[in-house]
Amino acid sequence: MNTPVPNGGARRDKARWLPLAVFAALAILLAAGVWLSRNPDREKLPSPLIGKPAPHFSLPVLHEAGRLMSIEDLRGAPYLLNVWGSWCPACRDEHPVLTRFAETKRVRVVGFNWKDEHADALRWLEEFGNPYFVVVADYEGKAAIDWGIYGAPETFLVDARGIVRWKFVGPLTDKVIRDELIPQLDQLGPAPRGQAR
């Protein structure tokens, strides 16, 4: 006489394989992450601002109490907007590179001091030098939201008409300036006679 096998045995067999299935799924996810991280451009995030007008701001000038500067004040010549903060270790690494580039006077370099204390920002520039044409301060970080800024350093190239032409996330290096920024500046062409670029 055949006795039916209880269903509990089949369930126990399935339960025994569950940890192995979870482990296999995690291993596949880990392998996919490692494979994707081999992409050298993984940190390059396309900016929705490229080709569009730079977002408006009216921010205090770090070195001039009571003075505000807006995007309109910067129009008429291209500028490099460099986002930095005294609290940012990568900004310290970038600073000598940015300083050397600013000394070429190829384009105005505008500092965008982000979520910093006024005294800390001034002290940082005093210690490391001020390569900026002007520094605006976004103390609360509200203007940064419109620019899509989520970290420092970040750098934007804006043309004479106020159109964003290029964005770089992370510290500028001599290689980035040579291979990416300079070609973007070259595309802007020479300035009209008698006018700043």
Protein described:
It is a single chain. By secondary structure, this protein is α/β, with parallel strands linked by helices. The chain is built from six helices and seven strands; from the N terminus they run αββαβαβαβαββα. It has helices at residues 8-37, 71-74, 89-103, 118-128, 142-147, 174-187; strands at residues 58-60, 68-70, 79-84, 108-114, 134-138, 154-158, 164-169. The strands form two sheets. A five-stranded mixed β-sheet has the order 5-4-3-6-7. A two-stranded antiparallel sheet has the order 1-2. The radius of gyration is 26 Å and the shape is elongated. The model is unreliable at 32-43 and 191-197 (pLDDT under 50).
Shape summary: elongated
Number of strands: 7
Helix segment tally: 6
Radius of gyration over C-alpha positions, nearest whole angstrom: 26 Å
Let me know the average pLDDT: 84
- Helical residue percent band: 40-55%
The major sheet is characterized as: 5 strands, mixed
Low-confidence stretches: 32-43, 191-197
Identify the strand order in the major beta sheet.
5-4-3-6-7
Note the beta-strand portion.
Answer: 15-25%
Return the string of H and E elements: HEEHEHEHEHEEH
Distance between the termini: 98 Å
Q: Which structural class should the secondary elements be placed in? A: alpha/beta
List the helices and strands and how they pair.
Elements: H1 8-37, E1 58-60, E2 68-70, H2 71-74, E3 79-84, H3 89-103, E4 108-114, H4 118-128, E5 134-138, H5 142-147, E6 154-158, E7 164-169, H6 174-187
Parallel strand pairs: 3-4, 4-5
Antiparallel strand pairs: 1-2, 3-6, 6-7
